[in-house]
């Protein structure tokens, strides 16, 4: 198989331990962004910026209407990743796939009506942490083939080890909610080859711009502190995020299942914490559409008990660049005194 081969849903399959580095997987369908889905996601990550809720606010900020929170792409991204694992990367237990790192480079905000396409590139595989540490690059384009964002994700996957969480959660999962449950095998798309000579090139994107509500570069200094924010997660928040994001893993909201896999309580989704931290940054920035890059390494889990869990977010301006009028923000997130993020930074465009 060539380094630049592209596989779609009707292509070859690979078992754990035999993954071809350089494989590109093209999701079999696009994802159309809905207006209410944006609002649902904003509620799930506790992001109350008006551009995620109000058409009028979006227009006032210089957009056509609503724009999605920065980590909204993870909803269709999770679907594309699940499809890839079930279609061509068989052998991995999806309930044992754990995210460790996330880096996102933004080119433009996601808007209602966007038809997003996903192409996932397996960049590297190495054995670590008792499983396979896999690095993926995901290129997201719109209906015109224009680049929307590029995401790099590291996950640890384990092949058939540990309990079957799907079976453990059979009594609590909504029917049809588990990926693949009752789903027919995907059929080849008409006129779409299983492999091509190379990836479809995305049309160039743009850099995020600074609208009138973005902080002025001349008012920002290295060392400035962002106003701290404490966010509380409840089991209800985890249930809601599971439903909105499409992630059915019951360790995130079932105390019974968490106990059976030796966890002290349900664990908050990594992308829930990452998404909430993104809103913390953009509320200070003034305009979510001016976020250029966002990188997080997850270190410690957030256990959510019946009493809930509180995460303390803080940030500091690490550096400024007068040539590009950007600032780099260093973020921290702490839960019960422990660092949730091992490393977290955001590059923001200022005016």
Q: What general form does the structure show?
A: globular
Q: DSSP helix count? A: 7
Q: Could you estimate the helical fraction of the residues in percent?
A: 10-25%
Helix/strand order, N-terminal first: EEEHHHEEEEHEHHHEEEEE
Spans of 5+ residues with little confidence (pLDDT < 50)? 178-198
Cα(first) to Cα(last) distance is 47 Å
Average pLDDT, rounded to a whole number, is: 87
Give the oligomer, counting copies of the same chain as homo and different chains as hetero.
single chain
Computed over alpha carbons, the radius of gyration is 20 Å
Task: Tell me about this structure.
The chain is α+β, with helices and mostly antiparallel strands and 351 residues long. It is 19% helix and 29% strand. The chain is built from 7 helices and 13 strands. Strands 1, 2, 3, 4, 5, 6, 7, 8, 9, 10, 11, 12 and 13 form a 13-stranded mixed sheet that branches. β10 and β11 form a beta hairpin. The termini are far apart. About 6% of the residues have low confidence.
């Amino acid at each position: 198989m060539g380094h630049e081969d592209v596989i779609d849903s009707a292509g070859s399959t690979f078992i754990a331990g035999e993954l071809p580095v350089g494989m590109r997987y093209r999701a079999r369908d696009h994802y159309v962004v809905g207006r209410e889905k944006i609002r649902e996601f904003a509620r799930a990550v506790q992001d109350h910026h008006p551009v995620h809720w109000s058409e009028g606010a979006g227009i006032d900020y210089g957009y056509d209407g609503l724009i999605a929170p920065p980590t909204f792409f993870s909803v269709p991204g999770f679907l594309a990743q699940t499809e890839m694992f079930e279609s061509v990367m068989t052998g991995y237990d999806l309930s044992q796939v754990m995210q460790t790192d996330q880096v996102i480079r933004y080119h433009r905000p996601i808007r209602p009506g966007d038809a997003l396409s996903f192409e996932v590139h397996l960049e590297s595989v190495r054995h670590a942490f008792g499983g396979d540490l896999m690095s993926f690059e995901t290129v997201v384009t719109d209906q015109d083939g224009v680049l929307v964002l590029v995401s790099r994700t590291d996950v640890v996957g384990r092949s058939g080890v540990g309990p079957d969480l799907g079976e453990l959660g059979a009594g609590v999962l909504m029917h049809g909610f588990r990926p693949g449950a009752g789903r027919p095998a995907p059929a080849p798309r008409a006129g779409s080859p299983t492999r091509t000579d190379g990836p479809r090139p995305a049309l160039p994107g743009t850099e995020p711009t600074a609208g009138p509500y973005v902080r002025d570069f001349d008012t920002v200094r290295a060392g400035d502190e962002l106003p701290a924010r404490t966010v509380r997660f409840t089991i209800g928040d985890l249930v809601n995020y599971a439903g909105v994001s499409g992630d059915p893993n019951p360790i995130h909201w079932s105390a019974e299942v968490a106990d059976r896999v030796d966890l002290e309580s349900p664990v908050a989704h990594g992308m829930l914490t990452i998404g909430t931290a993104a809103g913390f940054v953009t509320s200070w920035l003034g305009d979510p559409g001016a976020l250029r890059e966002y990188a997080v390494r997850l270190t410690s889990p957030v256990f959510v008990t019946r009493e809930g869990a509180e995460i303390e977010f803080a940030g500091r301006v690490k550096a400024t660049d007068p040539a590009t009028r950007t600032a780099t923000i260093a973020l921290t997130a702490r839960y019960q005194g422990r660092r949730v993020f091992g490393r977290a930074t955001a590059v923001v465009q200022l005016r």
